[in-house]
Amino acid sequence: KEPEATIVETLKDITSYEGEDAVFECRLSRETTQDAQWFLGDVPLQSNEMNEIRVQGTRHTLILRKVTLEDCGPISFKVGQHTSAA
Questions:
Q1: Maximum Cα–Cα distance for the chain, whole Å?
Q2: Most buried among 2, 35, 45, 83, using CB within 10 Å?
Q3: Which pTM was predicted?
Q4: What's residue 27's pLDDT?
Q5: How does pLDDT run across 24-66, given as a tens digit for each residue?
Q6: CA 80 – CA 71 distance, rounded (Å)
Q7: Which of 78, 79, 86, 85 is nearest to 34 (CA)?
Q8: Residue 40: strand pairing partners
Q9: Residue 60 sits in a domain of what CATH number?
Q10: Based on the structure, what is the number of domains in the chain?
Q11: The pLDDT value given to residue 33
């Protein structure tokens, strides 16, 4: 069983204007096969034309494209028992 990954670089609060992209980044202690999930409020996010989810090694990135007022709310990133929110 692989050791659990922890969040070493937490999410930062950001402010963006309608129509801009919002970028959130988190860094883990190690590369992991554990399920990592992004949320807007309680809604799990998937990679699609509005959201881009990237994983590069230990860096996990969420890009919300052309944000609207409906996108306003808490963003959280969860891996295992660990959570970071902005």
A1: 44
A2: 45
A3: 0.91
A4: 97
A5: 999 999 998 788 999 999 999 999 999 999 999 999 999 999 9
A6: 25
A7: 79
A8: 43, 75
A9: 2.60.40.10
A10: 1
A11: 79
Whether 19 is covered by a domain: the verdict is: yes
The answer to the question of residue 38 being in a domain is yes
Specify whether the CB–CB gap between 4 and 81 falls below 8 A: yes
Q: How far apart are CA 76 and CA 74, in angstroms?
A: 6
Contact in structure between 6 and 29 (CB atoms under 8 Å): yes
The first and second tokens of residue 5, run together, are 């990954």
Q: What's the whole-number average pLDDT of the chain? A: 93
Within a domain: 86: no
Q: State the residue range of the domain holding 64.
A: 7-79
The DSSP secondary structure of 10-76, one letter per residue, reads --------TTS-EEEEEEESS---S-EEEEETTEEP--SSSEEEEEETTEEEEEE-S--GGG-S-EE
